[in-house]
Amino acid sequence: MLFVSCLFFVYFQLWVPVYCDTEQLGFFSGSKSPGQVAKETGSSSCGCDALKRDAGVDVGEELSPHLEDPAEKYSKAANEENVEHHGEQDIRSKMVLLKSSWFFMGTDNPGIPPDGEGPQRRVWVDSFYIEQHEVTNRQFQHFVNQTLYVTEAERFGDSFVFEELLTEELKSKILQAVAAAPWWLPVKGANWRHPEGPGSTISDRLDHPVLHVSWNDAQAYCKWAQRRLPTEAEWEYACRAGLQDRLYPWGNKLLPKGQHYANLWQGDFPTTNTADDGYIGTSPVMSFPANSFGLYDMVGNAWEWTADWWNVHHTPEDKHNPTGPATGTDRVKKGGSYMCHKSYCYRYRCAARSQNTPDSSASNLGFRCVVNPS
Ligand SMILES: [Ca+2]
Ligand SMILES: [Ca+2]
């Protein structure tokens, strides 16, 4: 709930900056446009990690040779358990079994060194099941209908929304933003049911990832589903899908054969979104090719919460089932979102990472669950 120094006020076009002491966040001059800020602050300044609630705010081409068929889709044990508890038709995602293995986590060639992407280290993960796709609005709606759960964004009364998604009328009423990322606006009434605030709806987006869910909300859903959030190591193992020293879940080329493999940003952030991949905002889950583990949207579409506390200092020795620091202030999120572009937020890579406080929520942040084999 801290972070007062990185907030400032926006009065229409009159921006009054306040010094921000976090290196990852760029200083924002009051005379510059959001587009200028994006270019000048560089690839480490997406502002994703600035979305923290504060008392002052109202608001498959390359397969690893050592892994033979590591994914077992539609396991009877994983996908039919507890059907009685959740009704005849289990609303929860199908899962993929990932078998225990060593893999190389992180990278020695970090795209954003301050994020703690390195060093590359050998990590062992035990077998686990992981959901094929991000939790959708339809699934989260079912959870809420069953439990009457109220998300933190609903209780706080607001959430962060990317300004491009807002109407001019709504934008004109909002007086505050984040210094290093003025494209984020706290919108009263924005929550998972109303992703762009009052008047917006998920009725035509039931198969899109649920947004505006905090880490605590994600925990609540996974617990209800008798699952849990993945550790960062599990998430990255799932992202890499048996590939080693590759940037993306499918290899090193962003556009294999000229095709889009993830819902990212094309154009000039944050002013021009050409949506060459077909989507300005989120896309229905499973709209892009799965990785070789059969997992969709591991990078892009919505950021995904992991269970771990945030820390940027890692050591190179081998690790078994790492779970991150014992304590912290922020939780790790992985994979980037539909807002990511190499020019300012090169985080749509398996090794990339970012963080938010557990009560934060935004219009590009979701999750998926995992479970241990029974
Ligand atoms: Ca897109
Ligand atoms: Ca994702």
Automatic annotation (TrEMBL):
The keyword Nucleotide-binding does not apply. Residues 94-370 form the Sulfatase-modifying factor enzyme-like domain. Residues 68-87 are annotated as: Disordered. Pfam families: FGE-sulfatase. It is found in: Endoplasmic reticulum lumen. InterPro entries: CTDL_fold, Sulfatase_Mod_Factor_Kinase, SUMF_dom, SUMF_sf. Residues 1-20 form the signal peptide. The keyword Signal applies. GO terms for cellular component: endoplasmic reticulum lumen. Keywords: Signal. Belongs to the sulfatase-modifying factor family. This is Sulfatase-modifying factor enzyme-like domain-containing protein.
